[in-house]
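Anyone up for a design puzzle?
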């Protein structure tokens, strides 16, 4: 089956652990679907256009291209070190993306859903740039709390910049000026019935995706400008709009199409088939991006007119806080991925952010819990089980897997795990899937302890060999099952035991020689890590 997995495109101005927590499920999905034999297209990229990049460029006396390329290269390095298996991680400033978006918009403008209109546009005289709605802040007219120009996170209201009380630039804090400007608009309101049908067809989406999407519709869909008076972005392919750029929200979500098209061209596969009815599409992102994937992107695809495949699964995480506080780039209350990716085991970061991440509710990253998670579950439970078996076999059996008989209950448990864990991954229940595997790890430790091979080595050598033989089978299958989650440690075990990586039970024969092994996880000193954490927050 053809599987498209789209990871949200982070702004090219910094990557923190909140982004990481939202994006990691995409890699789990991609690795799993490849393991079961699906044809996977896992794509994402850096969001290089828009207000934040242009403003940062002015602050650093650089061009937006220079700034976005710098961060794009940083992101690529970080994702590679963390084991993200993208088939393509691109950027919206690439020629391939710009060419695709230009042609998409050119046809889009021929539809009945595009019209011209003069409307207020926010401008910051201090930053000397037009502001996207989300970069205008003020007080919500409904609840009086601080809100953005596109929505209020407190009451959930859908807003316009001109409806805010005391609108200001979110970058510098200066008052935002609202002036009339002529733009092209997408008539989202005319697509209300199609969008309702689409959303109602997916009641199994996560609660936040269903709730936010329905709220946008129930409060009245508003038409949105798809052009903006900016210097940095993709040119509007329409006469009379030569001084404008395509609004970032109307081109970055098309990155899923442009990137997957590029992968199809490189593989020589059918792009239309990937975007046809016989494929399955996952979109992985944070809570803030829900409407862009359930309302905006479907609206663009429907308005365009071609039979594009609408999203199947919306994998929308909740918020991740840091030591009990909201992550804030402007207040430097964030842990930047570039600062930690070389300091800690990538599987430790992946494990913590999946097992303790904001899958269904807001979650908190604390250094104490991160250390406890690593030293407890990864090192103490999983790593210890693997290490003591391999060391025991190395020491007393010359690294040769002893002759043994697979216990019926262990074989049944192994066989049951694959469909159970696989189903949970496909349903985007990543925490539950990981819990199933670690339940087996705890069972494995208990089995080893109860059989006491260190004693039976002298009193009942046959029982000792049976224990170690069964433990090796457990280790082999745990490595396969954990590979979507913990690719680095799993890859090591797969190499040590000469395993294949397909999603099915694996067994290691007696007599196999384990030519190499090492400790999977090193202990993290609590005092050191807590002290070092002060550098990052």
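Challenge accepted. My sequence:
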């Amino acid at each position: 089956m053809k599987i498209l997995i789209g990871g949200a495109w982070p702004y090219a101005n910094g990557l923190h652990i909140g982004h990481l927590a939202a994006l990691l499920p995409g890699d789990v999905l991609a690795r799993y679907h490849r393991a079961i034999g699906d044809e996977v297209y896992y794509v994402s990229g850096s969001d290089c256009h828009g207000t934040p990049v242009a403003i940062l460029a002015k602050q650093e006396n650089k061009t937006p291209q220079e700034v976005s390329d710098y961060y794009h290269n940083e992101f690529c390095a970080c994702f590679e070190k963390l084991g993200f298996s993208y088939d393509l991680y691109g950027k919206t400033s690439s020629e391939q993306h710009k060419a695709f978006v230009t042609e998409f918009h050119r046809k889009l403008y021929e539809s009945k859903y595009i019209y011209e209109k003069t409307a207020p546009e926010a401008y910051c005289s201090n930053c000397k740039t037009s502001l996207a709605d989300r970069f205008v802040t003020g007080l919500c007219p409904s609840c009086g709390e601080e809100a953005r120009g596109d929505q209020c996170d407190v009451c959930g209201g859908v807003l316009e910049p001109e409806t805010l009380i005391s609108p200001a630039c979110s970058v510098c804090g200066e008052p935002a000026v609202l002036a009339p400007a002529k733009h092209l608009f997408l008539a989202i309101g005319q697509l209300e019935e199609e969008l309702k049908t689409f959303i109602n067809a997916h009641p199994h989406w996560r609660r936040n995706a269903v709730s936010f999407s329905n709220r946008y519709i129930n409060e009245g869909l508003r038409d949105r400008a798809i052009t903006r008076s900016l210097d940095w972005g993709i040119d509007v392919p329409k006469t009379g709009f030569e001084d404008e750029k395509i609004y970032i929200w109307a081109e970055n979500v098309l990155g899923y199409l442009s990137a997957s098209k590029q992968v199809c061209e490189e593989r020589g596969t059918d792009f239309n088939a990937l975007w046809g009815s016989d494929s399955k599409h996952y979109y992985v992102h944070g809570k803030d991006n829900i409407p862009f994937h359930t309302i905006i992107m479907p609206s663009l695809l429907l308005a365009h007119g071609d039979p594009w495949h609408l999203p199947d699964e919306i994998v929308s995480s909740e918020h991740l806080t840091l030591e009990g506080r909201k992550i804030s780039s402007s207040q430097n209350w964030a842990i930047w991925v570039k600062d930690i990716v070389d300091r800690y085991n990538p599987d430790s970061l992946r494990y913590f952010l999946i097992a303790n991440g904001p899958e269904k509710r807001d979650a908190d990253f604390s250094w104490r819990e991160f250390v406890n998670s690593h030293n407890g579950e990864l090192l103490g439970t999983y790593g210890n089980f693997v290490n003591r078996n391999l060391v025991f076999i190395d020491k007393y059996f010359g690294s040769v897997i002893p002759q043994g008989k697979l216990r019926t209950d262990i074989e049944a448990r192994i066989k049951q795990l694959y469909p159970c864990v696989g189903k949970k991954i496909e349903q985007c229940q990543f925490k539950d899937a990981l819990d199933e595997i670690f339940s087996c790890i705890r069972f494995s430790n208990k089995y080893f302890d109860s059989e006491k091979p260190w004693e039976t080595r002298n009193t009942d050598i046959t029982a000792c060999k049976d224990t170690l033989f069964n433990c090796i089978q457990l280790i082999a299958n745990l490595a396969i099952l954990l590979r979507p989650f913990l690719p680095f440690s799993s890859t090591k075990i797969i190499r040590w035991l000469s395993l294949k990586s397909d999603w099915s039970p694996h067994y290691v024969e007696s007599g196999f020689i384990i030519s190499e092994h090492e400790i999977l996880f090193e202990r993290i000193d609590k005092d050191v890590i807590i002290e070092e954490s002060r550098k990052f927050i």
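A detail worth pointing out: The chain has 18 helices and 17 strands.
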